[in-house]
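Quick one, T. Sequence first:
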Amino acid sequence: MSDLILYDFGNSVCCQKVRITLVEKGLTWQARRVDLFKTEQYDPDYLKLNPKGVVPTLVHNGTPIIESTLICEYLDETFPDPPLMPKDPAGRTRMRLWSKFVDEGLFDGATELSFSAMFRERMRTMPAELREKRFRNVGDPRRTDRFKSTYEHGVQSPFVLHAIAAYERAFKHLEATLAEGGPWILGTRPTLADINLMPFAARLDYLGLLDVWTGDRPRVRDWWALASDWPSFKKGLRDLISETEFAEMRSHGPKIRDQVAARLAELRGL
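Structure tokens:
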């Protein structure tokens, strides 16, 4: 029997895609919470497992695996049934293009939109000393610059515009891809392409922002209806979000909706 430990934080989009994969594989695991708001990701013992100081980290039979995209592929290769990656190299390349959409655009995008909607207000109420400590603990100067800009300027930050543009590129490509096949991204069955994207669509949905991008994209709406009703999505993501977290997202997301829609309209040249 394999020993799987997942160092996890409930509403982390990266943890969510790993949990969906674990659930779809029918695996059981030990969950060990790493509270990002208490900066537990920078604990020296945790940094020995994950030097980047981020979640998730999967430990399989004593070996740590980091980076959520790589963890999902590792799980598919280690536990091959049901398969979540195409068998042929061309199919795997198509799947990994969606991983790149997520890792190179939507990850920062979800972070900036979530920050501007929710965490910005939370940080405003912090004592100044604690707020500066949070900025110092980010560990990556580029992320620190993004967080400070979003903290100071909200949706008007250029980094939030980058986030809006990243989602626009992804959903535009998704609409075109689904027009060629479907109902899933690579055809008739869900793959890691879908799983990688699900938490990033879910975050927008729970913030009340998703239809800003999908209102004129019926195939994307159909994909999201299918994905959000998929049992592994429900068990690995939706059912593990607390009612407090849902309430926070529902409360704060609509506050920035008009500004986000206006910036998207600017991008589209409307």
